[in-house]
User: Which sequence fits this backbone?
């Protein structure tokens, strides 16, 4: 058990061990953005309504604005920055580009993190309905969602094709 | 950006430790499970607890056990709503619960939100779930925030904020029991008796008492059940009308006779509403009898009176209780 006003967190962040000190009442989103300079995760509504702050905690999408940093201690956190770091362009990023699925882009990091978790956990290409259900908590005020869903379904088909090719 | 007030965080690993922490730091200590209700409320400065006692690391709250001898399914308060909605036993025995858990907010929130937090979800009102600035803008808060009046019932002395949990009406309709751990030990009571009509303190939890589990009796006869949720966006948003329905039958056919019935509505006042007198009206009738949908939906309509505490016209919401109840029963036959 721990009890303190400034806390020292140890987490696995985008695959790397990270230690960071923060006030006990800060959210994970505040620690990511204002202590670690990871500003990919967006601060939209800051109260659970929009999904712009979506990250993955132990592989599942979670809202960083409603996660106390103190409770992320010891867990594995993945942010949108991880998607940009591979040796090849991630199929989701490629599909978002080809389908023009981002306009202002504010919702995009959260949508990518929710979509990536869905694609990773699905053994076959996802349907449009599955993609829409998985993104039900992610608000986009620009695109009307059509191109976002096109991109997610397209990416999932490509990922599965690569997988079946054994690549 | 919405700042949280300052507090400390404790992360006990046992229920006993959590009870002890609450007691030693009371008042001023509050529980946090998934945080998806309490953190928005704290960001709105509706409370300023000095200590949050997290239940996230209390492993004993994460159990789900089917006890066939006792005929009950025991759901730990720390299970997430995503886990409950997907669990094979919940889906097989209590499809209305799988449905209601799967309709809460959105998938990301259901990965975080717990059953215990959903049962103890604070009551909601359009005048209170707002920023401090917003509340100041309408001339100050209300009984549930920093003011002295109720904006919903200005002549009333009680807060009538709405019990807005999706799962509570369903669990009551299924005859669930709540299991509590507190400074005075353990106790269990029917979930229906856990709530009372005061939006400021709408549960009978004693100070320091923690919801440890919910247990639900396994069906002993064929059953038809459903949950109705009406909301505007159909994702992310709280129910504005909610009705849980359960009919037990004497055979597994839709023209079998009704042996037991329960209809429970939420989002009225601070207490869920069990529609009464249904036994005399429909028990013994054939479930396929079209008058059943008529009788039950009229009873729900006459006994449920929505208030202007959440968005949308109360008269419209009341009409929706009738229409959606009638349609849901017709669709189950
Ligand atoms: C955008 C948004 C949409 C939402 N939509 C819905 C919806 O459609 N339907 C719905 O039902 N809810 C909705 N919610 C509310 C919330 O997400 C759920 O009710 C959730 O189940 C709360 O659980 P939690 O674990 O996050 O609770 P917490 O926020 O951790 O706690 C909620 C309250 O319960 C107390 N508490 C927590 N655990 C226990 C326990 N074991 N024993 C005693 N007290 C406890 C806390 O002190 C607090 O007062 C929504 C929330 C957001 C942000
Ligand atoms: S019902 Fe009245 S007292 Fe309660 S939160 Fe709403 S306005 Fe405030
Ligand atoms: S910023 Fe977290 S949900 Fe909007
Ligand atoms: S692209 Fe602007 S909010 Fe989605």
Assistant:
């Amino acid at each position: 058990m721990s009890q303190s006003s400034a806390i020292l967190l140890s987490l696995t962040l985008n695959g790397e061990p990270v230690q960071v000190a923060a006030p006990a009442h800060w959210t994970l989103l505040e620690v990511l953005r204002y202590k670690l300079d990871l500003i990919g995760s967006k601060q939209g509504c800051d109260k659970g309504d929009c999904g712009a702050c979506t990250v993955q905690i132990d592989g599942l999408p979670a809202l960083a604005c409603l996660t106390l940093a103190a409770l992320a201690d010891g867990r594995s956190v993945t942010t949108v920055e991880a998607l940009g770091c591979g040796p090849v362009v991630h199929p989701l990023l490629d599909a978002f580009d080809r389908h023009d699925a981002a306009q202002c882009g504010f919702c995009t990091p959260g949508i990518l993190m929710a979509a990536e978790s869905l694609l990773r956990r699905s053994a076959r290409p996802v349907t449009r309905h599955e993609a829409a259900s998985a993104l039900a908590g992610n608000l986009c005020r620009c695109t009307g969602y059509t191109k976002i869903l096109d991109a997610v379904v397209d990416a999932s088909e490509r990922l599965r094709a690569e997988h079946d090719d054994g690549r | 950006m919405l700042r949280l007030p300052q507090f400390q965080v404790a992360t006990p690993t046992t229920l006993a430790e959590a009870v002890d922490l609450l007691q030693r730091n009371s008042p001023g200590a509050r529980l946090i499970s998934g945080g998806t209700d309490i953190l928005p409320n704290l960001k709105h400065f509706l409370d300023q607890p000095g200590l949050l006692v997290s239940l996230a690391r209390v492993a004993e709250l994460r159990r789900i056990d089917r006890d066939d001898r006792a005929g009950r399914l025991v759901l730990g308060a720390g299970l997430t709503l995503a886990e409950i909605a997907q669990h094979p036993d919940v889906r097989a025995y209590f499809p209305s619960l799988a449905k209601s858990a799967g309709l809460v907010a959105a998938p990301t929130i259901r990965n975080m939100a717990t059953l215990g937090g959903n049962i103890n979800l604070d009551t909601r009102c359009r005048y209170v779930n707002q920023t401090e600035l917003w509340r100041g803008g309408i001339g100050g808060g209300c009984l549930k925030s920093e003011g002295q009046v109720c904006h919903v019932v200005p002549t009333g002395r009680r807060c009538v904020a709405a019990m807005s949990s999706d799962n509570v009406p369903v669990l009551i309709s299924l005859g669930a029991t709540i299991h509590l751990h507190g400074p005075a030990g353990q106790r269990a009571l029917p979930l229906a008796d856990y709530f009372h009509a005061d939006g400021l303190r709408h549960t009978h939890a004693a100070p320091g008492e923690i919801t440890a589990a919910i247990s639900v009796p396994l069906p002993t006869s064929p059953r038809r059940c459903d949950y109705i949720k009406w909301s505007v966006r159909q994702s992310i948003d709280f129910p504005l009308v909610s009705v849980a329905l359960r009919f037990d039958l004497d055979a597994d056919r839709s023209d079998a006779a009704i042996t037991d019935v329960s209809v429970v509505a939420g989002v009225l006042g601070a207490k869920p509403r069990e529609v009464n007198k249904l036994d005399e009206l429909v028990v013994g009738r054939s479930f396929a009898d079209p008058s059943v949908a008529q009788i039950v939906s009229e009873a729900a309509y006459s006994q449920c009176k929505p208030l202007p505490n959440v968005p949308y016209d109360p008269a419209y919401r009341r009409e929706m209780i009738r229409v959606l109840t009638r349609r849901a029963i017709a669709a189950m036959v």
Observations:
- The two ends of chain B are 50 Å apart (CA to CA).
- The CA atoms of residues 249 and 259 of chain B lie 5 Å apart.
- Chain B is about 30% helix and 20% strand.
- Chain B touches chain A at residues 1-2, 4-13, 17, 32, 34-36, 39-40, 43-44, 51-52, 54, 56, 105-109, 111-112, 235-236 (CB under 8 Å).
